């Protein structure tokens, strides 16, 4: 059974982080640690999982559709993955479509030996690079943007593997957190802006890399530090480590949505507790958009930390006015009579006796299409709520992401189509407010957003993309020639 | 993928309700409503599910191991179950062992026509009755105690199906909430003490029965009332309904653990909000066992409502000091080095930056074996907590349940082996307190426990079993003859 | 992959024997021998297979849809079936419908202990007996006629298991070859007329029973003798054996179609080589229906022995004018253009260069519906055959079988609808001839058919049924009341 | 269930043809025809099957382990393969190992568009070519030798697809019968010596290519002619066809073992009926190695045509002394007691009553390891045969094949280790004779073998390999350096 994202509505009304990566070198049962680590990153990608291990001689790969636990929890599965080094991946299908051949890690036999890579992010000029490679005779086995990196490495004229990899990455534009394994060891690196996260830990003598610190916790590793934006770290089998900065220095722009929703609340992102950030967004919201009410009710589970912050700041009691089922994922056949909103109720049910006759402040992390928000407001009213005020723990999401997050096209984003007043009417709330962009920056510990050089990538809120978007521009140009309607966002 | 109970530790350190039942008569797509209703009862039994429908001529049955969504979410599955009446069941395996032939509803072709039954509870003289039936030539197809009821009905000399069923149930001892379907309609009944729950609702012209009101909510049905203890309700295809009280009157003893843990917080049990009961247990706990601390931290998710109550009563802030993974269920292969307590961390991870240096009150719903409580206390300390105080939202669980709940034998119940002080030492908390039995009764809206005639079944706390336990006594007698060590609990 | 009968056309244009049984007692790995034996009987039933073993304490059962090799060839499968006694079954679904619960051996826990039975044959008053049992409270778990026997045994008042079994069988009418296992040993018996086959062999110290001698050959057992019609043989675990004749003496009527088609040619049936019988049918055919031709061509594989006989008697060379594929069973999607008769060609293809311009005598074992015969004649003509003469190694099959053979209703039997001349026109042959009923009896070593008391059951050719057919008569009576058209055959 | 080759002994005591190919262009449901055609070629490869179709815009591929019928018989499967052009493949795993990624057709997105290829044969310099390609940055996705061809095409500098393909094939050495599809149409070609077979047919307006004519018969296509050795035929979507001879002329050397065993007897190979060839080998054998005996008995099924020829020439009656089971393929767990030779008996059982006391001439097509021949001789003796004379319808097989046939290494070939007299002693026959190499050539219609320029490839009998064997030579050279024992055969 493939459960979808537990925070997800059935109609996919959330932004979706597309990947998590985990690597370990120097551990006696590397694949077992890798499986546990990926399991802790399951919320970052639930469609498929894969692990590649290396036993000093050969590489072993096992991939599967579905959850980590479905594919990597048995001794048999781990037994197929011997060795002291392993790299793993969980994924959604953003670029590349579904299907087993796109499940990472991707592996290739190069002239220099085996090469396995796990990639979180999105290469925004992958189509262009792929076209060039194919025209020179390269044969792609997947539709994944990650395979472009492998072919660039395979055809690089540089002598060492590290040089080949740097040579390849210089041609690549966009966001990437990569873990690479070769017969000589492991390398981990983040793109120059550090858009996607990657951290490093220590597990006995072994070195561990992971998308989030929660994965270090679960495998019992100690958190050392994050891999810095633009940094490439090499680790050998003897444990020796070298850090490189091949792309020079530039100010970092990590993804602020990791604080809002993607990372687990018990992770530490960009040197700050994610739980703390979320609670403080609630505090900021209570300051920016106060309201008189009886209860603060989170939309579970992602709205809970901000709701606690809102409650503490406002003094309005925190109560579970919506109960969340733990058994979600499938769309059921709807009986034709009755069962209004059975879909949303299957996941979220009103706590009627609590809510009836009360003024409710609902707290959710974000609004994407708005359809689920509308249903939840209606559910509160059906349960007898006197007033329903909606507070959102992020600014309006009006722009698509091209850095490895699955966003609907702009015309389907509620905030891409209307202003706050219209949105409030659409979801039928008594009032609606979003935290301001500066409030969000304050909540993550900064004085506010530095317009000239923002400290985070916040393109989904501001449309301010920190890299070129070559493939998108080419597609727009082609569509313009064909007179196709062009999604207005974002390159203009 | 079969997820186990989401509230469950990997080592099963919870009591487990064993079943949920759902029935609908008079709906145009009865099986689809039944599937949705069972899905809402999934927390009551996750090992297997089954639905039997009737289309006016024939009965159709589909059963499957695993979750409702895995077996009954597709149009194909529902298409195999035509008709206006359907009854369904989710189960754990208490009595009867695992295996498809024990998955309910059980069905038989009797001389009077088809007969399907879904049963929540446990018949405490099933072995004795079975022996008698087999000696007369009955051939059993399952090892389920429920099949005894069918054979008693099949061999009853009474003329009508209702009389046969009453005749059968008079021979039966223990706990049962039953939904029965025959070519003439549906009957629902609870044992004379009403130990297990059963409620009735209305969905358009259709009548619905379910273990909990949450299932009515999810299918969009209106909650009418509970089926009373000892009541049998017949519903015909024309919607006419008759209530019977074949067993006379006796004071009811519904299971108080439904308030503590089994029912969903958004259900109404015994005419009271379960969420409210749980929050009030927290309030009672804060009164009975106050402590100075920085944060009230629930063991998620079952400890949350009591923690909110404790926080509101004590004024100590409610915080998420433990983050729960949504992806649980499988035991993973443990890497041999590192990964201490990876098992418990896979499910519960400390929110380190919050907890470090703080005094924590942990709130959990119950302690069964104590092993998980011990690990969670240790996890808090590893995360730097200065003090860890444990508060339990139920009295000590010192006795087994023989009414359809999966309990370890008494010698494995922590409260069956030691007093509170020893338990505190075992789990290594700075202090430990349980709500008192009277506090629990107060929390569910009563003045306290009436010792002469308790208003609930609370045998797991008190050892006061409200029915004879024939099979258990016979087993003890047989073991005594063999000089086998006898579990001291409970018949002596 | 479930291959259907290898001799079968896709449209089922053959009579189908419905079962094979195999039992062994006293062998150290009884289930392994049983699996091999069933594999050798696979041609008698390919829909499902099952084995029940007994290890001195408990019975173990494993059943599966499909072939023996798919379900019982692994060590894991055999490991689930420990013990020195095992009984197995392969089946088609004649009476009882498909589905796992009808797969034999059937097993029941009786008051006297476990009871497993494997049955080849058909009980012609099963419906009537079942009705009576259900009216007394019996609950059936299958729709198989065999279960009637178990309930009759369960409710028999006789003291010993053997007496109970005899008591049960006295109420039963029709054809049966049974192997029964209980905690006390094994019993094997044939109905009083011995319609279905059963033989006994010795494998070291173990005793073996099987439907055909080929199963003895394959497991390495020595053929001792057949179980006599009306005989019941008991074998204990110490190897002691007792023969009973509980039904008195009556002249035997074994099924003559075992010689024609059902048994493997390397089996010995009714003390005669099946291969020899088939070759002699060919000899008789050549005498009764000679023709001038260039080649004798068998319809492979079942027509081969008769074709050799025809060739040797007539002097016309035996040639493979039709080549049979070894990969049959599935119906393929037909491309809409081209591919005329691809269905039949998938199985049988003309050996064009041989056949072109030649006069061909085709030899097949029988004609049921005639559709395949028609296609094969056409295939010979398409390949350029100058003349096609059809010779059939059995008399016209004009009547249904009610003794465990799957026959179409009479109106679909070609010989039930038309005479030989019309049949010849239907299949478009240049000439058509069947062996005479007396020729068939001569081929099996008799002087001819004794009309007053035939030596075999030949009801499918003659309509002369050797037992009452109670269920059929009741059905006809019921249909007559409803004025439904009644299939004329056979009770009138 | 994966049945292995029906002619195969359980211990693989046959040479195995490794592939069959089928292609169709211009048919409205190309994939359905392709599935049927592959089904008719199933005997050429049973491990896996695949089909690639093209609908004018996109290519669709479906592959599966097991038989064609298991993977391609349903409407659903065919529905996934739309379009008017399809190419398919059945395979054993000779070069390349097992696993889905080696299942053909192989497909690649080249700069010039999609490219799918199905290949029967073996490239004897594949390792060397692969090494060169990888060193230039090529990334292989399979271990199949066929992928070398695709990479050579992808990196060819020639402008048109046809030129690229010819350019690639010029670098390739060994045996190949190829069907290639591109967005522009289909191409079929055979290596310059025409070692592996390929024929062309017409199905309405569509053009069909197949390994054997039997596949044309089954889909209802008319046989046009064979693709000539060294010929490349292009077919466009409008049906226009062009024949090329890019490799110049050289005398052909088709594989003579197609006549002996690989092809189906109803196929036409190298302009001659395979059935006729096999019968004539029997005639030659009877002339070269006559014997006095009672019966000629074929080892079924592959020995049947030669046995008919031997019988007709010698006048000794042809009889089925060995009966073959239709249910083969799995190795069963052997019971420890009894069941001597149960393995071989599971497939072949003696027709005891026929054989007892008789002098038997056994006819088989070939002897590879000799183990099965030994067991069959022993089975005849166990059944009471007075004399057992073995006649083999091919010369002694003393040399490995490197052209796409799975042969054991030379030291395991019986004829590689001993002379005829020793072989006779090994299999314990009363006499043993093989047809002479000239007798074999006479049987296929030639005056005898032309030593200077043999008309067929007969390397497995003579060691006369018609091409260089580069990879083998390199491996031998490498092993010689390591002082490993080198299999003496064949390059020296």
Features:
2 domains; 6-stranded antiparallel β-sheet; 30% helix; alpha+beta; Rossmann fold; globular; homotetramer; 18 helices; Glutamine Phosphoribosylpyrophosphate, subunit 1, domain 1; 492 residues
Topology:
4 copies of one chain form a homotetramer.
Chain A: E1 16-17, E2 19-25, H1 30-40, E3 48-54, E4 59-65, H2 68-72, H3 75-79, E5 85-91, E6 106-110, E7 113-123, H4 126-135, H5 146-155, H6 161-170, E8 174-182, E9 185-190, E10 199-203, E11 206-210, H7 213-219, E12 222-226, E13 232-235, E14 241-244, H8 257-262, E15 268-269, E16 272-273, H9 274-288, E17 295-298, H10 304-314, E18 322-324, H11 342-347, E19 348-350, H12 352-355, E20 359-364, H13 371-382, E21 387-392, E22 405-406, H14 414-417, H15 420-427, E23 431-434, H16 437-443, H17 459-462, H18 470-481
Parallel strand pairs in A: 17-20, 20-21, 21-23
Antiparallel strand pairs in A: 1-22, 2-5, 2-11, 3-4, 3-5, 6-7, 7-8, 8-9, 9-13, 10-11, 10-12, 13-14, 15-16, 18-19
Helix pairs in contact in A: 1-7, 4-5, 5-6, 9-10, 9-16
